[in-house]
Amino acid sequence: MDWQWDGAIRELLRACGAQARRMGETGFTVMEKGPADYVTTVDQALDARLTHQFRQWFPEDGLITEENPDSRYDYTAGRPRLWCIDPIDGTDDFVHQRPYYSLMVGLLEHYQPTAGWIYAPVLERMYWGGPSYGVYQQLPDQRVMPLPQKRPEPPSVWYCPLMIGDKDRERYGPALQKLIPGADLQTMGSFGLKVVEVIRGRALAYMYFNRRVKLWDTVGPIAIAQAAGLTCCDLDGQRLRFDPQVVDAVTLCHCQRIVVGWPEFLPKLLPLIQEAVYVTETQAKSGGGPDNCSR
């Protein structure tokens, strides 16, 4: 990654964030792309703007975005660099005027995350970095500084903070709380902002189980998490991958279930998380319920 583009990317994200806030206040349309999968006219407008600019900046690179019909081709065409762009991460929060949505950009080089940017327009906070660069934040007053990485307290029988999505909390929450002493399951809209909460030490790990998360959701946040020294793995503890062998080439969804957490604590937590998922899905199958995590 050539970090000379860092400032320009941040400026573009701030401009698009301001546009999102304006459009959110003046009215927009919500459309359903699939079951519980929504897109707004704001997503579409920002996607077009970001796609246009990145094509001008990086004409030789591939672009993977939520609304770009060429994304599937670019992903499988063997391009060495792929820009993964999410115009609104946390659409439900945006639609319901909650502050925890973000705009995200991530770079895959040879299917490895090497750089990421997360901008939360309402919070006016920017987070960015990569394994070769470090991790930074820009505050509402425009100050730039390293993103503080606060090591959380070890889990105890009284308190074990964990980040999880709403759907996963609804499905797996009872088993997680039964098997993990002190489990406090927290959530917010954006995948990227959940990862930032772990980096900041406000949670020990973030868990994503339902295999609906796509490349534009993950590449930027995982690049930042890896730069911060977090473990990014699947439910079996295998490294998180971004190549076509473990990503659905049609939907661009991850086939792996995702865990991002502090390496000091995951060896103890991961077996309990695995058991909670197994128990939940075994009970669903024995009771005739669908396994929503199956491909």
Helices, strands, pairings?
Elements: H1 6-26, E1 30-34, E2 37-40, H2 41-57, E3 62-65, H3 71-76, E4 81-89, H4 91-95, E5 102-109, E6 112-120, E7 125-130, E8 134-138, E9 144-146, E10 160-164, H5 166-179, E11 183-186, H6 191-199, E12 205-208, H7 215-227, E13 231-234, E14 258-261, H8 266-286
Helix pairs in contact: 1-2, 5-8, 6-7
Q: Can you characterise this structure?
A:
This protein is of the alpha+beta class and 295 residues long. It folds into two domains: 3-146, Fructose-1,6-Bisphosphatase, subunit A, domain 1 (Fructose-1,6-Bisphosphatase, Chain A, domain 1), CATH 3.30.540; 160-286, 3-Layer(aba) Sandwich (D-Maltodextrin-Binding Protein, domain 2), CATH 3.40.190. It is built from eight helices and 14 strands. The chain is globular, with a radius of gyration of 18 Å. Residues 289-295 have low confidence and may be disordered.
